[in-house]
Write a structure and sequence with these properties.
There is one protein chain. It is built from 5 helices and no strands. By secondary structure, the chain is mainly alpha-helical. It has 2 domains: 47 residues, no CATH class; 41 residues, no CATH class. It comes from Sphaeroforma arctica JP610.
């Protein structure tokens, strides 16, 4: 759990170490196939290449708009609303930790 907490994972994927569910038995081919078929190996390859995960502006606003008490103008487009949300002081995000892409 300390390793997971230090890594700040987005989600946790459970893998079975063997078919018989016996303790202390790790079948590497079985685990490798689970990682391969779940798409985790491809995800790791893409993330290592430097491509970040991307969330659409509307989805981002829907999920995180409640983090701030700052009034965000509805007349702004979604990208500008995201910028306003990220610059809200109570969000506590440092300027170099984020950027808005198009």
């Amino acid at each position: 759990m300390s390793s997971l907490s230090a890594a700040a994972p987005f989600f946790i994927r459970c893998l079975k170490p063997n078919l018989t569910k016996q303790p202390d038995l790790f079948v590497s081919d079985f685990v490798h196939n689970q990682l391969l078929y779940s798409g985790m190996l491809e995800t790791v390859r893409i993330r290592r290449a430097g491509y970040p995960s991307r969330v659409g502006f509307e989805d981002f606003l829907h999920r995180y708009k409640t983090l701030t008490t700052k009034r965000i103008q509805d007349s702004l487009n979604a990208a500008e609303q995201c910028r306003a949300l990220m610059t809200a002081e109570e969000c506590g995000v440092v300027g170099e930790e984020w950027q808005v892409g198009m």
